[in-house]
Amino acid sequence: MLQQVVQAPGSITFREIPIPEVQEDQVLIKVHKIGICGTDIRVFEGKYAGVSYPVTQGREAAGEIVSVGRSVQNLFPGQKVTVQPQITCGHCKHCREGKYHLCGNLKVTGCQMPGMAAEYFVADADKVATLPGDISYEEGTMIEHLAVAVHAVKKAGNINGKKVLVLGAGPVGMVMAQAARGMGAASVMITDIGSFRLKIAKKSGIDFCVNTMENDLGEVLERYFGRRYADVIYDCAGTNVTISQAIRYADSGTQIVVVAVFQEAVGVNLGEMAEKELKLYTAHMYRNEDYLDAISLIDEKKVNLKSLVTEHFPFREYAEAYRYIVENRDKVMKVIIDIV
């Protein structure tokens, strides 16, 4: 079978290796589609510290089961599936408490362990999630991304009927806004400084799409949400500007959830936070229930992930896909690698 390998920053090769054998508690998956995420790009550029080269990428993928181990139950050849990429130790404090997404020994396929960027991939059965018939392989690649958003929505508790503000309309912000809407928010506003991203947000059904380079955020919030502004704010951009906006435009008692991965330290106005008694939460990855809820959101047509896909590339053109993303950051949303 053919497998992708990042030999070093900026260098992608392919190699022929045997199709892996299935152990008794594993399944063999024929990979159909792979999604490219921001971490993939950082690994390719040599800007991600948590990886050693060479590495096979692919943490977001979907495919079809072709064989199962003899002790596997409820999984069968022919099923469409995706795979949770977390590999946890099972015995640390966080794992024992059921917070395995915070495992001190956490490894992720495609980063610290070989990923799914290959024609076939062997996965432990307990990491495999089946996709209902109507969910496409393309949508299946985005379930991992959506699960991050589902987990973040839950950090703010029940958002049913609430007004939600999402700062940043990149891939993370886009699924965040859709997850909030699908999980009961009364209305959702998303902001960005790029018109291309906001057009996609509008196409995907987000209520209010605001370019903060062209509009005063405070005025827009008051116009659509009233003087109390938003009930919950999600920072999906991860900049000094956006976290400052979240604090400035939060009403007293508002919940702010940091979803973005901040690349550097930022200054936070703790005085204003204390004066307003704001609640600041952070969200990291997801748990199994978030994965299953993400699948349900797609199955129940409460999110529109297909609108986020802006480009497809053949498997052999992995490097070209990365270069395309890097050179067109303001004109690309989600890029899919096609194996089948």
Structural class: alpha/beta
- What is the alpha-carbon Rg in Å? 20 Å
Q: How much helical structure, as a percent, in the residues?
A: 25-40%
Shape: globular
The major β-sheet equals: 7 strands, mixed
Mean pLDDT over the full residue set: 96
CA-CA gap between termini: 13 Å
Task: Tell me which oligomeric state these chains represent.
Answer: single chain
Q: What percentage of the residues does DSSP assign to strands (E)?
A: 25-35%
Helix run count: 11
Q: Could you give the order of the helices and strands? A: EEEHEEEHEEEHHEHEHEHEHEHEHEHE
Q: List segments where confidence is low: pLDDT < 50 over at least 5 consecutive residues.
A: none
User: How many distinct beta strands?
Assistant: 17
Outline:
The chain is α/β, with parallel strands linked by helices. Helices cover 29% and strands 27% of the residues.
